[in-house]
Amino acid sequence: MFKVSARLTAIINSLPKTSDKYIFQKEPLNPFGLMHFSRSFRDLRKRVALKMQNPNINWITFHTFRHWFATNEHHKTKSLLHVQERLGHKNILTTTIYTHMINFDSDAYNAATASTVEEASKLVEAGFEYVCDVEGFKLFRKPK
What averages of pLDDT result for each successive group of 10 residues across the chain (144 residues)? Predict the structure, then answer.
């Protein structure tokens, strides 16, 4: 589960739907429906690619974010079954298509220690994750 802002929730709820289960559909609804949303995304993507002088940005799609999520989730948990459950796949082979084996050796972390519950609480609120206890201190890390 992910936290989303009230604004994003309102935007998603305002999208046209033909059922309560799905937001995005394969067939276009009308010029003011999902095709308009898709066209806006492509236009924005094109402007960003020109501004950043990086044509590779034009290759980014909504599906790219699904691959990115699956790869990062697999890197964090090392569990294909967990990723399969998060993506909602029935077949593990489908999940392996989404999880790209990337070398994350260059991962860098900020490290912090806590000796009290208050310090640990502040670190967790700042996005740090608990690693282990060493000599009475709790070690935390957060990706840079």
Answer: 78 70 56 67 90 90 86 85 91 84 66 89 89 87 81
CA 128 and chain centroid, separation: 17
Task: Quickly count: other Cβ atoms within 10 Å of residue 141's Cβ.
Answer: 16
Strand locations in the chain (E): 109-114, 129-134, 137-143
Task: In whole angstroms, give the CA distance from residue 84 to residue 90.
Answer: 8
Q: Give 141's strand partners.
A: 111, 129
At 20, list the tokens: 């309560």
The verdict on pTM exceeding 0.70 is no
> Please, which residues bridge with residue 138 across strands?
114, 133
